[in-house]
Amino acid sequence: MSHNIKEIAKLAGVSRSTASRVISGKGYASPEVRERVTAVVERLQYKPNAVARAMVSQRTHNIGVIVFRERPPIVSHPLYGKLIDSILTAAEAKGYSVFLKTDQEMSLRSTDYLLEQRVDGLILISRLRKNVIDYVKKFRIPYLMVNGSTDDPEVIHLVSDDEAGGANAATYLHGLGHRRLMIIAGPQEHRSHNLRLAGFKRGLEEKGDIEKLAVVPSPESTFEQGYRLMAENAEAFAEGGFTALFATNDMLALGAMKLLLERGWSIPGQAAVIGYDNIGLSGMYFPALTSVNVDLDAMGRDSVELLDRLIRGEPDLSKLNEYPSEIVIRQST
Amino acid sequence: MSHNIKEIAKLAGVSRSTASRVISGKGYASPEVRERVTAVVERLQYKPNAVARAMVSQRTHNIGVIVFRERPPIVSHPLYGKLIDSILTAAEAKGYSVFLKTDQEMSLRSTDYLLEQRVDGLILISRLRKNVIDYVKKFRIPYLMVNGSTDDPEVIHLVSDDEAGGANAATYLHGLGHRRLMIIAGPQEHRSHNLRLAGFKRGLEEKGDIEKLAVVPSPESTFEQGYRLMAENAEAFAEGGFTALFATNDMLALGAMKLLLERGWSIPGQAAVIGYDNIGLSGMYFPALTSVNVDLDAMGRDSVELLDRLIRGEPDLSKLNEYPSEIVIRQST
DNA sequence: TGAACGTGTGAGATCGTTCCCATACGGTTC
DNA sequence: GAACCGTATGGGAACGATCTCACACGTTCA
């Protein structure tokens, strides 16, 4: 059962104040008293009540993580899962416990919950509407955004350098000799898909000798959508003499690749494929997918680091934190 | 900033008690007063302090979820990610917030943290040592175990019916005409791998006309391990005239399958492959992997449901909750 | 007329800690 | 021997809510 410090104090024959001093480790206490108190603590397996502590210290040492996404998978999404793994590890190391929430309706409910819990800070993941940011701002709670987009220069956010990554992919494919390329471009209202496409185009334009470029827009960024779109465009791909395919994320790339494989195409022989995100799955596929890596480990780690600084009131934190995107070359190119 | 109920009361011209009655919605309050108070609450965007509430009510409405695993991926593991997604959704619906913790050292630290937070209950995921269970027991906190093993009949736990699933897989392969089979068997100290193997063997024995059966033990249950073991046993597989491969989880199966594909084997033509877990990846692979499904959605949902009942003090909850394992037939068989 | 009841409100204690302050004691220092 | 120090301890208020109880009013009914 749960004891309280009063019982501990009584059994150790001291006052609450003294017991508190021993247990929290600050303030005077003689060796004998210290010993007596710790013995009782040990014997009763006493756990100090963090709720009461938070009450007086006005700090909970908890942070909230909210993932905004329309549909599951949420935590089981390969990208967010990895990010959350990294956040949890970093939070643990800094002494924070994490409330994890998902929000499918882009509502303020999860946020409200966490505000009521008086978390010390908030990490907002993925795309979220402006109203959420405005709302959070009002409460003057430390917060930051990971993998989302905003035009608000005040908001601390962490993103991968998608434009450069897209350009890298283009340069790489061009270097392999590809001059006829098709792009499957995920939802353009998403910052990352938008920039990856723009970067890829820029990379190609800088080369100048591209023979053919087709952009297939995709309203979603799922495996199924990649598969479907490739099915619809397989003939055009063959007839147009395309030799390479870039998709703005791995799911789309894998879906497209699976269709090509089912139709008997050899990859990378007849078509090279490159994706983006470098999700775990990509390395396991056959052929393993070449992909632009996003450093989710660093992003997770740094988001906790930055939030902690914010909580501790450090000034002048960098608002925009971009992470380099490097190509991981595998079997599909 | 954060206001408190005293300020609200003052601004509304009532006492704390009355404000509390209006805000929490229980107890008498005249329409005018009710109106005045809610207006102030609205204007100041007042959020009741859950910490203080927990203090007096002795209930936090928080639950703790701990995933015990030696190594990452943890949340990003396809199995646990899905389970956690399901738990989060169910918890939200029941008004619980979730503390998510991972524990790589099979230690008591995460547990201690959550006990200090005075969570209402605990969901323990994956394999955990006996000492953890014994420890948790001492604190008389509602808890249950998902996807772990225990010989303690007192512990409420939720698992998939791995023995039956293994047998199903065997029956299914036998039905397709396979008489020479190889098994890649993951760590036998894991309940699930152990039972899947046992079930599979039983399934075959019941048929009686098996010509050849080889069991390749695997110390780990990773993709890389499956790949490596298949590399070591590819010749034996060919020479032995094996026609089917069963692995005790999808990761092993996919690793093995990838090696076979790289060596030019046709699947399912020359070798049928079947895995276990039905992780998202399996359906996306080419050829898509036939796999025994584990109903993680139901397990997540029910774990919250059961924990909630436990918290509310309902008696006579079923200790052992087994979930049926059904085969999802795809391209690899 | 007054007892009983329904409605509405506020004062005070309480939950489990921490922290400020008062106090006490033995030893230096002037 | 008075003043001061460092060490050691305990009393009481505070954190922000809820909850029990007391009380005050107006209505109804015997």
Question: How would you characterize this protein structure?
Answer:
The structure is a homodimer of 333-residue chains. The first copy, chain A, has 333 residues and is α/β, with parallel strands linked by helices. Chain A folds into three domains: 44 residues, Orthogonal Bundle (434 Repressor (Amino-terminal Domain)); 128 residues, Rossmann fold (3-Layer(aba) Sandwich); 132 residues, Response regulator (Rossmann fold), CATH 3.40.50.2300. Helices cover 46% and strands 18% of the residues of chain A. The first copy, chain A, has 13 helices and twelve strands. A six-stranded parallel sheet of chain A has the order 2-1-3-4-5-11, sandwiched between helices. In chain A, strands 7-6-8-9-10-12 form a six-stranded mixed sheet, sandwiched between helices. The longest helix of chain A has 17 residues. Chain A is elongated, with a radius of gyration of 26 Å. Chain A starts with a helix and ends in a 5-residue tail after the last strand. The model of chain A has no long low-confidence stretch (mean pLDDT 95). Chain B binds a DNA duplex (30 and 30 nucleotides) through α2 and α4.
